[in-house]
């Protein structure tokens, strides 16, 4: 391929620097492997950083239900605020410091803080040259035979210096499973048929183009009396007129179906409400917390900091009104995907413009012109997130596919999830599917606390590629509970550990999985490294 100027080899290549990719790289490096980690965007961290989505976690996360390194990541974020920010004495003293006092998470924070913490976690391995990081590169080709990937070619986002990296093991931790088609790995997209999966909520016919909404998030503050109204977006009239059949109102509004009941619900919006930020108890099992959209995903709460530090709260807009579900961006020509992502950007800008100019206020007026984008917080010039938030990826056809009847109490007839003898971690989230490109409304139902089976990260055809993010062996339905931050981290970390373990033992991934004794030995390695492989008694579906 023309333009290639750099070839090298590593033991473990991790393509995609989101949370799964970072966790995979850390795990492989601390297990003794040499690692190359690549990322398309400037920031590593994916959901937490370039996509700007505050941590979405289960209610027990402060005490159990994640790996040791994920807890170190969370602790690092809090420590960063304690070291670098003038917190109030009351806020600094809190073990469960929540800098944004958001209701969606016990730890709402700014994207750049997460970037700093992740870079700090990688630092010793980069200094020792055990790990090399290349940002601004995306995969464009792979040399592979029968599932064995010998090298991956990456193109620069800007410039012409291509990379071709050979590796003993390759982990696909991209947001959309980009390596799978390049390497000829069998995969699935969209909604599988009921005949294939046996899932009671699956359709009769497969719907490969029926994929969950993506969102392009942004952060805003509010300056009373000021006018920060953006220029009218090009597609504003289009998006202002869109009203999905099941929405009950225009898409660009405060109104949307309630995810759990599908009842048409109007949310409240009030910038800087003056609420008691220390009284916020973020627990979605008890209260989804989205009644006031301002405080729902707030990432800076002024009252957490010394007086005068901030003039306004800052909130992260990731609401139903910016869900783009008109058409998929997976497995379509690049120009088509680019045009659809631009449509999604226009939807987000249209929502902001509507909030600034037309949105009904509690006092009877219209619009908050004082709403101001914070491009510095997003790390971009336009103020929108650096990367789209993709909820659903291509998914490997895996040795083990996790189905609705493995995690859903309603489908199982029991309040516990399926127990996997090859567990490599745990996770918990509701089966939360946003509206999709096939015209489906929300599917948001309880899940039981679940395990991550080793077989779900190994392609059915074997080889040396492992799934390291949302591209593991779930279905369209179970993707809804395996796609959030701590689970993605655990998936990637398990993949990184498996790659290093195979290098250390001479086994293959399928060789480990196919031998009960080898699985047990690998699980001992994981537990010694701080993995939790099962849930304690007393946790429940919600």
TrEMBL record:
It comes from the Bacteria. Signal peptide: none annotated. InterPro entries: FAD/NAD-bd_sf, NadB. It holds the Pfam family FAD_oxidored. This is FAD-dependent oxidoreductase. It comes from Occultella glacieicola.
């Amino acid at each position: 391929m023309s333009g290639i100027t750099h070839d090298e080899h590593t033991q473990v290549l991790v393509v995609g620097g989101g949370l799964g990719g970072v966790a995979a790289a850390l795990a492989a490096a601390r297990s003794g492997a040499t690692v190359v980690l690549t990322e398309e965007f400037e920031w590593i961290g994916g959901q937490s950083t370039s996509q700007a989505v505050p941590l979405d976690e289960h209610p027990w996360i402060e005490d159990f239900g994640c790996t040791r390194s994920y807890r170190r990541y969370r602790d690092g974020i809090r420590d960063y605020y304690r070291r670098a920010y003038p917190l109030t004495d009351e806020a600094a003293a809190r073990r469960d410091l929540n800098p944004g006092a958001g209701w969606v998470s016990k730890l709402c924070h700014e994207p750049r803080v997460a970037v700093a913490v992740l870079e700090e976690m990688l630092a010793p391995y980069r200094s020792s040259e055990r790990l090399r990081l290349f940002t601004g590169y995306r995969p464009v080709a792979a040399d592979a035979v029968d599932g064995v990937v010998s090298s991956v070619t990456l193109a620069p986002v800007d410039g012409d210096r291509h990379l071709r990296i050979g590796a003993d093991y390759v982990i696909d931790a991209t947001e959309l499973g980009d390596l799978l088609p390049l390497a000829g790995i069998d995969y699935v997209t969209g909604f599988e048929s009921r005949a294939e999966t046996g899932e009671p909520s699956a359709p009769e016919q497969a719907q490969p183009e029926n994929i969950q909404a993506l969102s392009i998030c942004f952060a805003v503050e509010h300056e009373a009396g000021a006018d920060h109204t953006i220029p009218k977006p090009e597609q504003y009239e289009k998006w202002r007129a869109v009203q999905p059949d099941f929405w009950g109102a225009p898409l660009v509004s405060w109104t949307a179906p309630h995810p759990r009941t599908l009842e048409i619900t109007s949310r409240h919006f009030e910038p800087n409400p003056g609420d008691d930020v220390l009284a916020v108890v973020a627990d979605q099992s008890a209260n989804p917390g989205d009644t006031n959209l301002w405080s729902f995903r707030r990432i800076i709460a002024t009252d957490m900091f010394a007086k005068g530090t901030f003039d306004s709260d800052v909130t992260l807009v990731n609401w139903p009104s910016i869900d783009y579900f008109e058409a998929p961006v997976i497995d379509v020509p690049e120009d088509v995907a680019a045009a659809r992502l631009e449509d999604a950007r226009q939807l987000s800008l249209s929502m902001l413009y509507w909030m600034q100019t037309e949105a009904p206020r509690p006092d009877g007026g219209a619009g908050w012109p004082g709403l101001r984008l914070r491009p510095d917080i997003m790390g971009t010039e336009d103020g929108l997130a650096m990367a789209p938030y993709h909820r659903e990826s291509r998914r490997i056809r895996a040795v083990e596919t996790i189905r609705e009847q493995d995690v859903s109490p309603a489908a199982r007839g029991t309040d516990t999830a399926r127990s996997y003898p090859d567990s490599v971690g745990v996770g918990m989230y509701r089966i939360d599917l946003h509206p999709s490109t096939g015209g489906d409304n929300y599917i948001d139902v309880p899940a039981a606390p679940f395990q991550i089976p080793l077989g779900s990260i190994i392609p059915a055809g074997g080889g040396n590629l492992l799934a390291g993010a949302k591209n593991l062996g779930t279905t369209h339905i179970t993707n809804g509970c395996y796609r959030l931050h701590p689970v993605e981290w655990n998936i990637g970390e398990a993949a990184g550990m498996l790659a290093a373990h195979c290098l250390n033992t001479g086994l293959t991934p399928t060789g480990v999985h196919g031998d009960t004794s080898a699985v047990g030995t690998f699980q001992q390695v994981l537990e010694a490294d701080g993995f939790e492989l099962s849930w304690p008694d007393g946790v429940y579906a919600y």
